[in-house]
Amino acid sequence: MLKTIFRMTFGIIFAAVWFCEAISITVEWEPAQTTVNGDPLEEIHYYKLFYGTTSGRYTDYITVTNGTSVRLTDLEYNKTLYFCVRTCSGPVESDYSEELFWTAPVMPDSDFDGLSDDWETFYFGSLHRAGSSTDSDGNGVIDLEEFIAGTDPMNPSDRPILRISPDGAVYFFAEKAGGSGYENRTRKYRLLHSSSLAEGNWTPVPDMDDIQAENQLVTCGVPMDRAPGYYRTEIYLD
Predict the structure, then answer these.
(1) What are the extents of the domains in the chain?
(2) 6-103: which CATH topology?
(3) Long-range residue pairs from 225-229, CB within 8 A, at least 24 positions apart, any chain
(4) Where is the Fibronectin type-III domain (predicted)?
(5) How far apart are CA 80 and CA 183, in angstroms?
(6) Tally of helices (H runs) and strands (E runs) in the chain
């Protein structure tokens, strides 16, 4: 069955003021030639552009009557959208086109220091007070690590903490990514173990890798047969 050839061109449009940036894309396509049953489409009246955040599941659609393209505006950062289109001749429609997807960029980082502009502005009021190696609160955790961990770079007592309970279990709080600078981002954790700080050979603890943070307490019991050693967490953003 001949399906609509679906072609997309994307243009990222930014407003003049950095904190009011908006994302837009232009989606273009070519008309289908046959109906969903394989019969010729005699006259094209309009198109339906379907889209959603999950492949094969389209929660929205736009009816387009004046051409083979449409512009979508005010899209969210770091979100993936899936698209397909149907060509319509009155009540008769073509089959779905092939599906294509597009992922919006992450929050802007105008000075390329690893800190999103919104996060820097929220805590520091400008893009010039913090950078990839600064430690604004002097607690030994640099501002880039505070951004990744979701801690307050102006509060020396707020830092990632790994604890050990009286029964020997290792635990930590997995802070969900949210707030200024984290739109549609996911914070993840992994727990590492090393038998020697001098050697610095850290290995992932089984079943404690790629833990998605949902504001939950993560606990890892230490098996009796595991060699004594040291633990640390790694925190990263997707």
Answers:
(1) 6-103, 108-158, 161-238
(2) Immunoglobulin-like (2.60.40)
(3) 226/193, 227/195, 228/195, 229/193, 229/194, 229/195, 229/196
(4) 8-109
(5) 12
(6) 2, 15
